Amino acid sequence: MSTKNGSTKTPAAPQEPAKQRPAHEVRLGRIKATIWANQNDNGTWYNVTLSRSYKDGDEWKSSSSFGRDELLTVAKVADLANSWIHGQAQAPANNGHENEQPDEEIPY
């Protein structure tokens, strides 16, 4: 591409969007809960993905399938993720005023 003064300008390479990082991770052994924060005009909400790490030869892989003997660990990791999320939701609601109650309780 040439400009009026004869210099050549190359178009800028498209930039890849920044990869979103998890807000938090909970791991017990090979079982992991990855907590993702999402934002909109109403505030922040969280989603959780559960996975199990395993080795295939020399390579580590991940699966969302769990065996019978892993289910209690999955439940514990999910419980810890739930506790972390609830802790995040309560912190900003007080805005530094420990004795105040949030304006609105969110039902389950």
Structure, explained:
- The chain has one helix at 71-94; strands at 24-28, 31-40, 43-56, 59-63.
- It has 108 residues and is α+β, with helices and mostly antiparallel strands.
- It has a domain at 24-94.
- A hairpin with a 2-residue loop joins strand 1 (24-28) and strand 2.
- The protein is flat and about 60 Å long.
- Mean pLDDT is 83; it is low at 96-101.
What is the strand and helix layout of this fold?
Layout: E1 24-28, E2 31-40, E3 43-56, E4 59-63, H1 71-94
Antiparallel strand pairs: 1-2, 2-3, 3-4
In percent, how helical is the residue content?
Answer: 10-25%
Strand content: 25-35%
Low-pLDDT runs of 5+ residues are 96-101
Principal-axis shape? flat
Count every beta strand, where a strand is a DSSP E run of 2 or more residues: 4
Largest sheet: 4 strands, antiparallel
Tally of DSSP helical segments: 1
Q: Find the structural class using helix and strand composition.
A: alpha+beta
**Order of secondary-structure elements:** EEEEH
Cα-based radius of gyration, to the nearest Å: 22 Å
Distance from first to last alpha carbon: 59 Å
In the sheet with the most strands, the strands line up as 1-2-3-4
How much is the average pLDDT? 83
In a nutshell, what does this entry contain?
This protein is an alpha+beta fold and 108 residues long.
